[in-house]
Amino acid sequence: MFDRTRNSNIAARTVLAAGVLLLPALASAQSAAAPEKASQAAESKSTDRWLHIRVISSEAKGETVRVNIPLDLAEKVLPAINKDHLRDGKVKIDEAHMQDIDLRAMIDAVRSSKDGEFVTVQSNDADVRVAKKDGHLLVHVIDKENAKKAQVEIKIPMKVIDALFSAGKDELDLVAALHALSAQGDTELVSVKSTENTVRIWLDSKSVTD
Fold first, then answer.
1. Assigned domain for 209 exists
2. For the chain, how many structural domains are there in total?
3. Is residue 28 part of a domain?
4. pLDDT tens across the length of the chain (210 residues)
């Protein structure tokens, strides 16, 4: 059913590459920032939100990659990137692949519904579960078919999803989603475990990963 392990690895590498590209901008922003009073710095430090990405390879010559990105920096840098479908912090949805699917109507239906399981699929290829609980959309996938079997868990706050779909009909607003994410507490967003890699994406107020 999936090339899911391969796709999740590609996605993780793409996110990591984006994070690495943001690091020079972070250094520049820090060097240009004016000094603040000690009390203001302490307050800012306690309220800063950081997006962390960690990929641990299980291969014999494996490596561990860690990326830490302050959300406020990502909000400022994204609008400056104009490449392919990404423009001004928004991603253009390919209408050719979205025919007959009204994503906003689907999201609105999920938002207004009670907590519960919306989709449960069990097959020889994979187990898939989609649910809503405590204001979060949950997706749980176990890939059984691939030799590098993977378990994927995604937990996205509904407020972040609403912000993501707040742009035009055929756009996703990444900056608005990041802004909404910055208002969330510490939370784990994505977890991928396979025989090849372990990937974790989470949000907290620390500037370093464990």
1. no
2. 1
3. yes
4. 444 444 444 444 444 444 444 444 434 444 444 454 444 444 444 468 999 999 998 876 778 999 999 999 999 999 998 888 888 899 887 654 555 667 777 788 888 889 999 889 888 888 999 999 999 999 999 988 766 678 999 999 999 999 998 887 778 999 999 999 999 889 999 999 988 889 999 999 998 876
Does the residue 210 lie in any domain? no
- Whether 166 maps to a domain, the answer reads yes
Cα–Cα separations (whole angstroms), residue 33 to 19, 22, 28, 36: 21, 17, 9, 9
Domain that holds residue 174: 4-204
